[in-house]
């Protein structure tokens, strides 16, 4: 921006400026952040960012809303994420989000969800969460008490938790066997009110399943994760008694109107999560004993999405194939080439972006 333009904008972003004039400026800046070029331009103007931050306490709700929507647009652009590391009061955003009935918690959820896609920024956000009095417990309380905030559904807490769970520290918290946190997420694999929240939960479960040392516990009676992963993939097909043998009770005699998960990205994540559980010898044993093959076989017949169908085929091959050599019993310990790992991470980011667009 030209210095004169910056000066003019700063003049209108003062607390004493008439609301109608200030609103024109915030609307202009909001429009500016709709393009990558505009976001880059604004991110370079520290003085304007600092002036915008004062609007969080503006008496006009529409102006405060513009401020948060500007931050949503900026946070969606990873190329300007450093602005949030240095110039945006993320700690204040978090504190406000946790307040019951805060008017803009919905927007803050979206901002934090966007920010935490990048692992480096995610660690920064986690440090801020841990510095808050309630820590991760406060985030979980807000997630599970859906009526706590009357001004928003806060469904973007789902992707936020999924992003946070890419960090080992968060997975360790969720998988603490004395906390029973992971069990509270399980019913949300069939949460009908929002695919955003539902997808975030499935992403969280998937990330937790990367920690193979917990597989036996996750598949055991105390958590019993498998039915919650298979049920969204099950359809109304009538199964014979032989197929029914071994299936978890919740997957037997499903009604004729039973619907599968309608979001192909979430179906793929569910399949990926089961594939992770199948990476260990004990996991494969449980999947076979629970007759998971039958549900996946019917899913494969029905599946139209190419990527989900391919993922399903790969999982079926693991279940019906011979056990790998002793050195390959735990597939999560097999070294993955860096370029393959990077490709998978990029694919995951693309899918997450598609769900939030």
UniProtKB/TrEMBL annotation:
Bilayer-spanning residue ranges: none
Highest rank taxon of the organism: Eukaryota
Residue intervals of the Protein HGH1 N-terminal domain: 97-267
Alphabetical list of Pfam families matching this protein: DUF383, DUF384
Chain ranges of the Protein HGH1 C-terminal domain: 273-325
Listed InterPro entries: ARM-like (IPR011989), ARM-type_fold (IPR016024), Hgh1 (IPR039717), Protein_HGH1_C (IPR007206), Protein_HGH1_N (IPR007205)
Family: Belongs to the HGH1 family.
Full protein name: Protein HGH1 homolog
Species this protein is from: Petromyzon marinus
């Amino acid at each position: 921006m030209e210095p004169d333009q910056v000066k003019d904008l700063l003049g209108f972003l003062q607390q004493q400026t008439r609301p109608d004039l200030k609103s024109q400026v915030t609307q202009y800046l909001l429009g500016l952040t709709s393009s990558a070029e505009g976001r880059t331009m604004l991110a370079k103007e520290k003085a304007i960012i600092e002036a915008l931050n004062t609007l969080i306490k503006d008496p006009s709700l529409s102006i405060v809303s513009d401020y948060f929507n500007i931050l949503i647009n900026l946070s969606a652009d990873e190329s300007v994420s450093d602005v949030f590391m240095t110039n945006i009061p993320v700690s204040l955003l978090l504190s406000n989000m946790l307040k019951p009935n805060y008017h803009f918690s919905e927007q803050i959820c979206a901002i934090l969800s966007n920010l935490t896609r990048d692992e480096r920024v995610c660690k920064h956000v986690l440090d801020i969460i841990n510095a808050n009095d309630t820590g991760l417990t406060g985030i979980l309380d807000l997630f599970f008490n859906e009526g706590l905030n009357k001004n928003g559904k806060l469904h973007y807490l789902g992707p936020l938790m999924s992003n946070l769970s890419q960090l080992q520290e968060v997975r360790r918290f969720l998988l603490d066997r004395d906390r029973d946190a992971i069990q509270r997420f399980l019913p949300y694999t069939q949460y009908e009110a929002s695919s955003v929240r539902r997808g975030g939960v499935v992403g969280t479960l998937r990330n937790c399943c990367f920690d193979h040392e917990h597989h036996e516990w996750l598949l055991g009676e105390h958590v019993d994760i498998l039915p919650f992963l298979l049920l969204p993939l099950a359809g109304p097909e009538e199964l014979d008694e032989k197929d029914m043998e071994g299936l978890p009770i919740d997957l037997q005699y499903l009604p004729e109107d039973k619907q599968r998960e309608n979001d192909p990205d979430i179906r793929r994540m569910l399949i990926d999560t089961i594939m992770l559980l199948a990476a260990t010898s004990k996991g494969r044993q449980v999947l076979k004993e629970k007759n998971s093959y039958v549900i996946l076989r019917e899913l494969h017949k029905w599946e139209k999405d190419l990527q989900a169908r391919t993922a399903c085929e790969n999982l079926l091959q693991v279940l019906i194939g011979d056990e790998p050599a002793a050195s390959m019993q735990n597939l999560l310990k097999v070294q993955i080439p860096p370029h393959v790992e990077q490709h998978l991470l990029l694919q995951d980011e693309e899918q997450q972006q598609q769900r939030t667009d």
